[in-house]
Write a structure and sequence with these properties.
By secondary structure, this protein is an all-alpha fold. It has one domain: Four Helix Bundle (Hemerythrin (Met), subunit A), CATH 1.20.120. It is built from 10 helices and no strands. The protein has helices at residues 2-26, 32-40, 42-62, 65-70, 72-97, 104-129, 133-147, 149-162, 167-177, 180-198. The chain starts with a helix and ends with a helix. Bound molecules: protoporphyrin IX containing FE (HEM). Protoporphyrin IX containing FE binds at residues 17-18, 20-21, 24, 34, 37, 48-49, 52-53, 55-56, 89-90, 93, 96-97, 100-101, 110, 113-114, 117, 146-147, 149-150.
């Protein structure tokens, strides 16, 4: 029951952020920061707003144990879709990272996030092709923890504004805080899964 509630919350958040990205894509009048993003990176922003939401929602379906174990064929197809979406979403994210708001601190935060996102997902894919199931699981957990930066970022930004923090300073910190704790949490989970398996 607790697992189902947790997963439903994750799915709702994923759908909310995905819907927001798709709205930015089709909106006739975009907020200033998004309008400027589309002017500076017409292709990158388009690819990013189409592919990253797909990764976010497909990944949420992939972490559901019931779907994974009962519908293996669906899991495989969603896995391929997830990898493709991350490769395109990550490459476009990387192409925009070094002009992100907030200067070098946030540029490197997003840049490193993009590189690790591409790397962890590719390693997860290669492990799956080699039949190394546990290694595949570990890399995909890391990959999805990084995908979830899209959600944590959009929780931290309004929270920092409510707390009255200056936007630029908060944005620089959030460019790192949106993914480093997620990755540490994934590492903890991976270690726990390994020790449970050994026990
Ligand atoms: C995890 C790897 C990701 C990286 C490295 C990344 C990178 C970026 C960068 C550099 C920008 C421009 C920021 C700026 O100019 O200040 C951006 C904007 C954006 N990204 Fe991503 N992104 C990632 C994942 C995602 C995901 C999974 C979504 C899912 C919906 C997403 C949705 C958006 C949206 C909607 C924007 C527009 C600006 C905003 O609302 O903040 N991104 N991304």
């Amino acid at each position: 029951m607790a697992q189902w509630t947790g997963w439903s919350t994750l799915m709702l958040l994923a759908l909310g952020v995905a819907g927001y990205a798709l709205w930015l894509l089709v909106a006739s009048e975009r907020p200033d920061f998004a309008a400027s993003l589309f002017v500076r990176h017409p292709v990158g922003a388009l690819v990013h707003m189409v592919c990253s939401p797909v990764a976010l929602v497909a990944g949420a379906l992939q972490v559901n144990r019931a779907i994974r174990t009962r519908h293996l064929v669906l899991h495989r197809w969603l896995g391929r879709l997830y990898v493709l979406a991350v490769l395109l979403g990550g490459a476009s994210g990387l192409s925009m990272a070094f002009e992100a708001q907030g200067g070098p601190v946030s540029e490197w935060g997003f840049g490193l996030l993009a590189v690790l996102w591409l790397l962890s997902t590719s390693l997860g894919f290669v492990a799956m092709r080699r039949g190394a199931r546990n290694t595949h699981r570990d890399w995909m957990l890391r990959s999805y923890a990084l995908t979830l930066a899209a959600i944590t970022l959009r929780i931290y930004i309004p929270s920092s504004q409510i707390a009255g923090l200056p936007f630029e300073d908060a944005y620089r910190a959030i460019a790192w805080l949106c993914w480093v704790p997620n990755l540490l949490l994934a590492e903890w989970l991976i270690r726990r899964l390994r020790s449970t398996a050994t026990a």
